[in-house]
Amino acid sequence: MKDLDLVTIGRSSVDLYGQQIGGRLEDMASFVKAVGGCPTNIAVGAARLGLKSALISRVGDEAMGRFIREQLVREGVCVDGLATDPQRLTALVLLGVRDENSFPLIFYRTDCADAALDEGDVTRELIARTRAVLVTGTHFAKANSDAAQKKAIRLAQETGAKVIFDIDYRPNLWGLAGHGAGESRFIASDTVSAHLAGILPDCDLIVGTEEELHIAGGSMDTIAALKAIRKLAPKALIVAKRGAQGCVAFPKAIPATLDEGIRGPGFPVEVYNVLGAGDAFMAGFLSGWLRDEPIDQCCAYANACGAIAVSRLLCAPEYPSALELKHFMEKGSSHHALRHDPVLNHLHHATNRRPVPPKLAILSIDHGLHDFEQFGKGQGADAGKIAYFKALAVKAAAEAADEFGARKGLGVGMFLDGTLGREALFRAEDHDFWIARQVPHGERIRLTEWPARQVAKLIANGRSDARTPFAKHLPEIKQVSAAAQALGREVLIEALPPEGETTAMMLARLYEEGLKPDYWLVELQHDAMSWNAIDAVIAKEDPLCRGLIVIARNAQSGPDLKKAGKQPRVMGFVGGRSVFGVAFQLWLGGELDDAAATTLMRKQLQHFANDFSGEG
Fold it and tell me: Fewest Cβ atoms nearer than 10 Å: which of 33, 265, 430, 559?
């Protein structure tokens, strides 16, 4: 059964991108981490465009290997062919952006995991599942991985799969240049050309830059190289990538000039970083080619994906989703530097988020010292006891998660803070929780220090009893929200309307200010008209919003919570003092031990979950 569209084979690394643009690698002060490697990038890009892709490679049995595996799963890439090598480390690459023509990089690949790929990693079972196999030039440079890819080609031909060849020429990975020459894209080599010539006859699609076509065809003249490739691969579609000029495809005889090939529209944009843009190009081309679309349309997809990727810093994380690509091709952008286009950026963020449970039961315990002192009713609620109790709340949430997973399919979340809840935050990271972390007003927050999956929780309080007028907080909310989403963090905004204003009106006002959070935290509504009004605002302003989380303030919330659970945009509820308040008072007074307090919180969260799911 062909349940996969594409299997890619070869490099799988962790890319560490220098964040200081315009500097030498020697002067980089910080790096951002992403999955990398040509076939890994293509698998991710293809999955984002709706193809069912898989990767055959190896990673180490350590944190970087687990990061690659987990990220591929999040992206929807099948990892059945991704082996864990207990003897070797995951490959690393250091990269930077010096200027629009210089992109220094260093490959750390000495005896790395993916370089050890061999024939045993390629199975008939996996190849038989796919409609196409993509091999990459770099992995023909070593005998073991060369044999692995040749086996994949044989199995593809035996099982009726197409063979795609991304020439992916890196001279220093063929031993033609030193470690510091990672940026080098071309060194002539008769040995490499002769080796690749043995691959070409088995290919249905061959893709490369002009320099890569030169090495594959054994000639510095592009037309001569193309003719040499055509002689060896008479039936293959050959595609030449030409950077800002787009691409040219040759399905049959090679003409006298490149301009006589099949072309798609180009997309002139600012060149920010060319690294990985070719892999985005390939993913775009395959999104059309594997669906039997016309070649010029495949070229258009490829050119657009390349343009989007070249305008951003990273490789795979920057590749477009299908919706993002559709918007760009239909409406374009008024920004030459695409990374400054707010519409495109929002589409990119909203369509490439981490998966979350469809429904959430959330325990909120991000309250401050003053609130806990009130909850404790003068029983000595000091900072140490509060911090300890917040850690108990994490245990309660973990116990509830086990129960919900078995009975209701609910995910568990927590609202936590980084002050009194610092230890609780650390403990919560041990579990598969959805976590929203409070951003206190007026405090300097370093979002780069937050784990990537933590959601930034902001408060837009329009109530007359708010300690600070809402208008004063608005610029800060907008600034933090933009910073969080630029770093790939999700944002939740608690929207509490002022007297005389509905929740729907409050959301409309915040949307007018340009705020598009991933989640809204709102109060329970009491009638269908109110829910419909909220739904209409979100449908108009941001249909990609992940959903609403509603506040369960007390035990009498049951009927309204049950109604909320039936609303299509409501994805969860949160209980704070209504879940932990009684347990905290009894625990603080010595009437409950740790275990009993934990059990009481779990049961109260389960009570609200029953109401929300309609079981109460």
Answer: 430
Parallel, antiparallel or unpaired: strands 205-209 and 162-166:
parallel
Q: Is the dihedral of CA 471, 473, 477, 479 positive or negative?
A: positive
Identity of the amino acid at 601: M
The CA-based diameter of the chain, rounded to the nearest angstrom, is: 90
Collapsed DSSP state (helix, strand, coil) of residue 163: strand
Contacting residues for 221 by C-beta, under 8 A, at least 6 apart: 214
Task: Compute the distance between CA of residue 314 and CA of residue 336 in angstroms, rounded to an integer.
Answer: 18
d(CA 484, CA 465): 28
Give one DSSP letter per residue of 301-321, joined into a string: HHHHHHHHHHTSSSSGGGPPP
Q: Position of tokens 């086990």?
A: 402
3-state secondary structure 238-289: EEEECHHHCEEEECCCCCCCHHHCEECCCCCCCCCCCCCHHHHHHHHHHHHH
With vertex at residue 332, the alpha carbon angle to CA 243 and CA 18, rounded to the nearest 5 degrees, is 55
How many other C-beta atoms lie within 10 A of the C-beta of residue 365? 28
Q: How long a stretch of residues is the chain? A: 616
Name the strand (E) or helix (H) holding 300. Answer: helix 295-310
37 Rama sector, left if φ>0, alpha if ψ -120 to 50, beta otherwise? left
- Give the strand pairing for 455-461 and 434-438: parallel
Q: C-alpha dihedral over 54, 57, 62, 66, to 10 degrees? A: -10
Between CA 362 and CA 411 the distance in angstroms is 8
End-to-end Cα, the chain, rounded Å: 44
| Token duo for residue 206 | 């061959």
Question: CA 573 to CA 400: how far, in whole Å?
Answer: 14
Domains by residue range for the chain, with CATH: 6-351 (3.40.1190.20), 360-612 (3.20.20.70)
Q: Which tokens go with 321? A: 């989703």
All residues at 6 or more sequence positions from 495 whose CB lies less than 8 Å from its CB, including other chains: 460, 503, 506, 507, 510, 520, 521, 522
Q: Which tokens hold the place of 483?
A: 């910073």
Question: Is the pLDDT score of 183 beyond 60?
Answer: no
Q: Tell me the mean pLDDT in the region 121-142.
A: 96
> Other CB atoms closer than 10 Å to residue 103's CB: what's the count?
17
Q: What is the pLDDT of residues 450-474, one digit of tens each?
A: 998 999 999 998 776 666 667 778 9
Task: Judge whether residue 73 has pLDDT over 80.
Answer: yes
pTM here is: 0.93
Please name the residue that has the structure tokens 């109401």: 611
Mean pLDDT, rounded, for 302-306: 97
Number of C-beta neighbours around residue 558 at 10 A: 16
Tell me the pLDDT of the chain averaged across its residues: 92
Helix (H, G, I), strand (E, B) or coil at 416: strand
